[in-house]
Design goal:
40% of the residues lie in helices and 20% in strands. The chain contains 15 helices and 16 strands. The strands form 4 sheets. It has a 9-stranded mixed beta sheet. Strands 5-4-15 form a 3-stranded antiparallel beta sheet, with no helix packed on it. A two-stranded antiparallel ribbon has the order 3-16. Helix 12 crosses helix 15. It is elongated, with a radius of gyration of 30 Å. 34% of the residues are buried. Bound molecules: adenosine-5'-diphosphate (ADP), zinc ion and magnesium ion. Zinc ion binds next to loops.
Length: 472
């Protein structure tokens, strides 16, 4: 590739507040058209906005989750434009004084991506186009849904960096309870700004803004398409124009929506009906104290302090409830690796096979911790641990009781096991002969016979050693 892509992101996230940002309407996805609206959010003249402090708190949390400076003073502005999904004909946003500035996220191990700002704004409604009837309908339920917009510097140089950033942002916002970050449902929407320049150049090219990206895959495909489109223009001696383009996932291409020349002059001015947001340092530290430990910090703890492989640590943090469960379990039994392995393999196996969720299991992290300890202490075999987990998973119960009730406690009585082995050998003379004449595979069959007679409590290692000895 002769060209270096330069990419910056603008990410809109719907905040998980109970009500909308300037009125008391429910902030809930869906509902019949125009049932979640009131005079305020439908832009009736004479109504006044009332700022939802819950939205402010979540915006602060988003800033804290991305190492931003939280500003003691921020304020709202009106962004004026007409579009049928915006009945007020202006959007209330933060232009001059955003609530958070100067954050960053490290991607792909060591690359720092700077966040220019995070500001609060309101969402617009939705237009539903009926091509058959030739009409468009407006649903204002989404008007006034609280959003934050996260704006990065043009620091990305590859699709992988963009992917890592988007995944990390989504995870951090979920941990902090700011946003459920479902791209496919539109609760997190990523706009990609992209330009290209000759490799080695320091001067950025003219950018295009790509809208309508609702998955990581779409982001990757749109960037790739756009790099090629712009490269072809430059190769033919043309110039890229600054414009907004819509990505079409079915065709895998982008199409011009509007160019810079048609761009609106928004005539921003300070919103006269909402006082500035003043946050004391104490307000900010109170909000900080209510934040859970963030995934990137858990990742560092798991890999550096607990010695887990990076892939395992990544899997654990990918779901906050899973990570919480792990943390609670290792508090009881600090066998970091065994607990991690057992949860990632055996517990996940059960979870995948069922409708159950990690947050509504009928047993506690402490009980799982105990089960793993029983196995590593040799009280039960590894196979018995799996069987016990299955019972706990279905019906709950304490691992030690389950082990005793079901005869899973490992039997270390050599005499009994020797008797059983002698019996198996005498009843399977053909197999024993076959083994002795070099058929190693038959050993597994003989072991199976021993375990079958000895029961679930058999010590498999002891059985194996004794059987090997007897077959010599
Ligand atoms: P504007 O003020 O015109 O909206 P911004 O400076 O706010 O422009 O940038 C908007 C987005 O575009 C940001 O995400 C930024 O990182 C990105 N961006 C700016 N310049 C470029 C460029 N030359 N190439 C790619 N992205 C860019
Ligand atoms: Zn309302
Ligand atoms: Mg901008």
């Amino acid at each position: 590739m002769r060209y270096q892509p330069v990419i910056g992101l603008e990410i809109h996230c719907e905040l998980l507040t109970e009500s909308k940002v300037f009125c008391a309407c429910k902030n809930e996805f869906g509902g019949s058209e125009n049932t979640r609206v009131c005079p305020r959010c439908s832009g009736m003249p004479g109504t006044l906005p009332l700022l939802n402090t819950g939205a402010v708190k979540l915006a602060v949390k988003a800033g804290l989750a991305t190492d931003c400076t939280i500003n003691n003073y921020s304020a709202f502005d009106r962004k004026n434009y007409f579009y049928p999904d915006l009945p007020k004909a202006y959007q209330i946003t933060q232009f001059e004084f955003p609530i958070c500035t100067d954050g960053h996220i490290t991607v792909c191990g060591d690359k720092d991506i700077k966040i220019n700002r995070i500001h609060i704004e309101e969402d617009a409604g939705k237009l539903i186009h009926d091509d058959y009837e030739g009409i468009s309908m407006a649903d204002y339920n989404r008007c006034g849904v609280p959003l934050i917009e996260i704006v990065t510097e043009p620091d990305f140089r590859s699709i992988e960096e963009v992917w890592d950033f988007v995944e990390q942002i989504a995870l951090r916002l979920k941990y902090a309870g700011v946003c459920d970050a479902r791209m496919e449902q539109g609760s997190m929407r990523v706009d990609v700004n992209i330009s290209i320049m000759p490799v080695g150049s320091e001067t950025f090219g003219t950018r295009a803004e790509l809208k309508n990206l609702n998955s990581l895959k779409a982001i990757g495909r749109a960037i790739e398409y756009e790099i090629n489109r712009q490269a072809e223009i430059l190769d033919n001696g043309g110039t890229v124009v600054q414009e907004t383009r819509r990505y079409n996932d079915n065709h895998g291409n982008t199409k011009a929506l509007r160019s810079k020349e048609e761009a609106h002059d928004y005539r921003y001015f300070p919103e006269p009906d909402i006082p500035p947001v003043i946050l004391s340092d104490e307000d900010i530290s109170d909000i900080n104290a209510s934040m859970p430990e963030m995934p990137q910090h858990r990742f560092a703890r798991y890999t550096k302090k607990y010695g887990l492989p990076e892939d395992d640590a990544k899997l654990i943090i990918s779901d906050k409830n899973f990570s919480d469960f792990y943390d609670d379990a290792v508090k009881i039994n600090p066998d970091y690796k065994q607990i991690s392995n057992f949860m990632l393999v055996e517990l996940n196996h059960n979870l995948n096979d069922s409708e159950k969720n990690i947050s509504d299991l009928p047993f506690s992290p402490a009980e799982l911790a105990e089960l793993v300890k029983m196995s590593t202490d040799g009280i039960i075999s590894k196979n018995a641990a799996k069987d016990i987990l299955k019972i706990m998973f279905d019906d709950g119960g304490q691992p030690m009781f389950i082990a005793k009730d079901n005869g899973f406690i490992m039997d270390n009585n050599t005499a009994r096991l020797t008797d059983i082995i002698n019996r198996v050998i005498s009843e399977n003379t053909d197999s024993v002969e076959s083994y002795k004449s070099g058929n190693q595979k038959i050993f597994g069959f003989l072991m199976g016979q021993v375990i079958r007679l000895a029961g679930k409590g058999a010590n498999p290692q002891m059985a194996k050693d004794l059987l090997t000895e007897k077959l010599k």
